[in-house]
Amino acid sequence: MPNRLPIWIIIIISTLIVGVTGLLIYSIYQLLAKSLKEKEYDKKSITVIDRFGSILPYGLPLLEGLQNFGQQILPDYPFSLMSLYKKTLMPFVIFYVTHPELAFIIFFVLYYLFVRVKSPVPDRPFIRFNVLQSILLFLINSLLGATFRALPIEFRMSLYGLMLCNTLFWFVLSTITYSVVKSIQGKYAKIPVISQAVRIQIDNNQT
Fold first, then answer.
1. For 20-42, how does the pLDDT look when each residue is reduced to its tens digit (9 = 90+)?
2. Domains in the chain: how many in total?
3. Can you tell me the distance from the alpha carbon of 29 to that of 110, in angstroms, rounded to the nearest whole number?
4. Average pLDDT over residues 102-130
5. Does 192 reside within a domain?
6. 21, 67, 82, 97: which is deepest, by most CB within 10 A?
7. In a domain, 120, yes or no
8. Does a structural domain hold residue 1?
């Protein structure tokens, strides 16, 4: 397409946007850490910022799930639901699909800021747990999506293929919704296997 920007320009712009966002988050956390340190704040307590800051990373696995499964099955859902999807999430999904490099940039930024042992961001266990869990959900969604696309197209378009796609879609949606609700409540999610793997990873980093 002649009107589309070159890929290297898109990568630079995406990197700058994510970088500026990361620096903004880092600055906010530095100010927060300074104020909390002055008040001798317990880092294990969960603040309002922790709760809502833990919601944002789940946008990555949500977009990945909508790309892999939602686009195929949502047109078969009631018109009202499809209309709501078009007005809310669809523009983000289209941007996500047309800029696949953005997912990897966000992935590495999240990993660098929140998952690494020597992270520059002040240690907030609740946010770290949810960021790591969202990354794991993103990787699982990517693997499931790649596996589903590798199946023969005849199977994918058949009744059983659509049933499988629906199952995977609702698995993605339910795990993310559950995690977001728990984040708002200020509680740790307990997704079988996934949450346990996250806790094991965090414990290994602390030892």
1. 666 666 666 666 656 555 444 45
2. 1
3. 14
4. 80
5. yes
6. 67
7. yes
8. no
